[in-house]
Specification:
- The chain is of the alpha/beta class and about 450 residues long.
- It has 20 helices and 7 strands.
- It has a 5-stranded mixed beta sheet with strand order 1-2-5-6-7, sandwiched between helices. It has a two-stranded antiparallel ribbon with strand order 3-4.
- Helix 3 links the parallel strand 6 and strand 7.
- The longest helix has about 40 residues.
- The N terminus is likely disordered.
Length: about 450
Amino acid sequence: MPKSQELPERTKALNSPTYQNVPVTCPSCGNRFISPVLTTIDAGLDPEAKALFLSGQINIAACPKCGHAGMLSSPLVYHDPDKELLFTYVPAELGLPENEQQRIIGDLTNRVMSSLPSEQRKGYLLRPRSFLRIEGMVEAVLEADGVTPDMLKAQQDKANLLERLLHATSDEARRMIVRESDEQLDYEFFQILTLNIELAQANAQEEAKNQLLGLRQQLLEWTTAGREVAAREDAIRELGYEVTREGLLEKLVQAFKAGESAKVDTMIAFGRPAIDYVFYQQLTARIEAEEEKDRPSEADKLKELRERVLDVTAQVDTEMQRATEHASKLLQQILASEDLEESARAHLDQIDELALDALALNLRAAQQAGRTDEAQRLQQLGDILMKLIQESQPPEIQFINSLLTSDYPDGTMEILEENREQVNEHMLELMRLVEDDLKQGGRVELAHRLAEISEQAISLIG
């Protein structure tokens, strides 16, 4: 693949967030130290900095002497060129006079303007919106992203509910909270819970992780949504790595007769590639066999199952078509830009497996048709995306990816042995999480390979 283009000046200037070193006095022990403070966020070039800002994870300073950590009060500029937003924040607690506030804001906004090419300097840059509370700026950014105050409140309510459940003094007290809040304990709540588990895992917080896992197991048994989540997870486990028409049909019949609707729908969605003309022939043959045995109720059940399979596959296909069209439009938008790398970086958070599959499909089509220029540009974009994706991944995920792209078993074992210090219980647990994610995303073969590599890692550490 050809090398990616050199970064343009603006990308070089703002690709890494803009920091300033400031003196800090620890409120706990009085120790004075220097800490970097983020002063400018460009959401178009650094979506990761935007994500950290929205999650309240910027400008956190930890005292090197006593370990006390907290958020620093510091001026900040937020810029989103796509949505034409320029926000400024000067903390009221700094007690700065009006002219000093204006000087700081002017300095920071001028940096943003001077980093832009002249054709991108628009009127909104002359009218920055000022905030006295960082929470107000966060809410304005979320509102521009389509997140309404009601949605924010609902999410905060779920976060508060999670805290209540974690601090319940007994299982009975926790059960009572669950009975009162069953409607709030929905699929979105389980997503928040899973995110907290992954964060605890990533930060090696074993006690917190185990507490969250224990809560999740209880909620899977005690709540309506939990039972549905558990049914979906059971369905994926039951199908296994190799999904065949015959195996899928047998398991669907069993689950449908048992009235396990969530499991049936999950099996249909997960096993969609195996549902074809031959599958329907086999199901129809079962219906006819029951009719020949004069068992109309059994035949009717199978007919209901056939209708359910048709309905769910139609929904899956519609969603897949919509997602594929979105991925194709996104690729075309990036390819139409003058600077591939800057555009790819700005849209990196929207690049998923479908987008990469569409890119590979278009590249093959261009190569086969002899459209050399188009193929080269697609190839260049592929190189850029792979580089950006790898750069944005944590070291542990990069390590797992290197294993997945190496020859099994000799190449993978060689990498494991060379990096023995990284192969521990934390890495094994992360491998399990990635394996589950691959399976749920339908990448069964890759999940199976990772499971085999995990067995190698287990044998290595005994």
